């Protein structure tokens, strides 16, 4: 999309500002025109987000600053509402928002759009924690039990290596690459410790295998965080003392965004699995649950249950390296499609 010429936009701004002789005021219409943006207004929260192809600016009338891409605090000056309820920006606020949203090469070298810069692959369990098993009481050394920790490590390593090869410029991390015990806290720390530039995101994909006392249960499913769960996603560091009023609201907005991305990621992985193993096992769909690892990750996160070791037929499949490779291919395909569409590369290809 092409932006209006800067001089024309400036004229518009001046014209809108000149409408009020008392002090320069700019209408919402002029600000949106200026930034090529659209407004998302949250009436319940009394705050708005100006979204452009290059970023998002969150503001609240009565608060003299806003947040760029939910991260960077920008001083704006007055933003108010007229008695009729219209949003009114001081010329300083309009200028600050325009500068923030149109500053060239604001965030990353290649693109100012948000991109997925890091992918965390998390094979569940390990070491002293075997996870589920097809036969927990089996002590036969010649026919060792099928253990979740081994299944998910094989799949996780496969996915990790494929993604590393596919994305040489992204950070790809695996939380364990051997049969070792890694606590849930440690897994979350590994993911949260990855440092990103503004406008970069990371995703977290945990891999598990299922078991049920009902031996007929079979198939793969993906879990994400339920909508009503609140996390402290945006850290208050650096927001200043007057942040306390706006903080929970921003947190809530960020939460909604992570939830939306988690659902997209989960759907994409389900679709990938459907394509590679759908003819063997049923797709049990996308489900919501506040798993620990997912809950403590400040990023879009999903948990995959690749299948049931408690189901005799599915256990036979899960014991085959070729089937685990198919599961890994499906998960990789789903992640890559999500990442490519998030990064916008699909858009340019399809046009
Ligand atoms: Zn598990």
Descriptive report:
This protein has 351 residues and is of the alpha/beta class. The protein is 38% helix and 22% strand. It has helices at residues 6-18, 28-35, 91-102, 148-166, 184-192, 247-277, 292-295, 312-318, 321-343, 345-350, and strands at 25-27, 38-42, 47-52, 55-59, 65-68, 72-75, 79-81, 87-90, 115-123, 171-174, 200-210, 220-224, 283-288, 301-308. The strands form three sheets. The protein has a six-stranded mixed sheet. A five-stranded antiparallel sheet has the order 2-3-4-5-6, with helices on one face. The chain has a three-stranded antiparallel sheet with strand order 1-8-7. Helix 4 packs across helix 9 and helix 6 (247-277) crosses helix 9. The relative contact order is 0.13. Mean pLDDT is 82; it is low at 1-22, 105-112 and 346-351. The structure holds zinc ion. Zinc ion binds next to loops.
Q: How many separate helices?
A: 10
Identify the CATH homologous superfamily of the largest domain.
Zn-dependent exopeptidases
Largest sheet: 6 strands, mixed
Show unreliable segments.
1-22, 105-112, 346-351
């Amino acid at each position: 999309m092409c932006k209006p010429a800067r001089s024309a936009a400036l004229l518009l701004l001046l014209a809108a500002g000149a409408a009020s002789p008392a002090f320069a005021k700019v209408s919402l219409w002029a600000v949106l025109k200026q930034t090529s943006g659209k407004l998302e207004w949250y009436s319940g929260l009394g705050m708005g987000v100006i979204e452009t192809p290059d970023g998002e600016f969150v503001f609240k009338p009565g608060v003299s600053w806003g947040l760029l891409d939910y991260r960077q605090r920008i001083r704006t000056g007055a933003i108010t509402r007229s008695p009729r309820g219209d949003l009114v920006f001081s010329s300083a606020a309009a200028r600050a928002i325009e500068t923030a949203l149109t500053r060239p090469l604001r965030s990353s070298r290649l693109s100012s759009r948000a991109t997925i810069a890091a992918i965390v692959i998390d094979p569940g369990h390990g070491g002293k924690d075997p996870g589920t098993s097809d036969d927990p009481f089996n002590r036969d050394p010649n026919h060792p039990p099928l253990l979740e920790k081994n299944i998910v490590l094989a799949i996780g390593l496969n996915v990790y290596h494929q993604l590393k090869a596919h994305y040489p410029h992204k950070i790809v991390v695996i939380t364990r690459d051997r049969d070792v015990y890694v606590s849930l806290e440690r897994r979350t720390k590994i993911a949260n410790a990855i440092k990103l530039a503004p406008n970069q995101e990371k995703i977290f994909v945990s891999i598990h295998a299922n078991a049920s006392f009902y031996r007929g249960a079979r198939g793969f499913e993906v879990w994400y965080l339920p909508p009503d769960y609140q996390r402290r996603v945006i850290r208050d560091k650096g927001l200043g003392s007057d942040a306390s009023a706006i903080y929970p609201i921003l947190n809530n907005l960020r939460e909604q965004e992570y939830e939306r991305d988690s659902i997209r990621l989960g759907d994409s992985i389900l679709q990938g699995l459907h394509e590679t193993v759908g003819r063997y096992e049923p797709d049990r769909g996308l489900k919501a649950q506040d798993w620990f690892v997912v809950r403590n990750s400040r990023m879009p996160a999903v948990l995959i249950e690749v299948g049931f070791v408690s189901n005799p037929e599915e256990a036979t499949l899960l014991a085959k390296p070729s089937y685990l490779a198919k599961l890994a291919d499906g998960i990789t395909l789903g992640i890559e499609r999500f990442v490519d569409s998030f990064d916008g590369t699909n858009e340019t290809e399809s046009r």
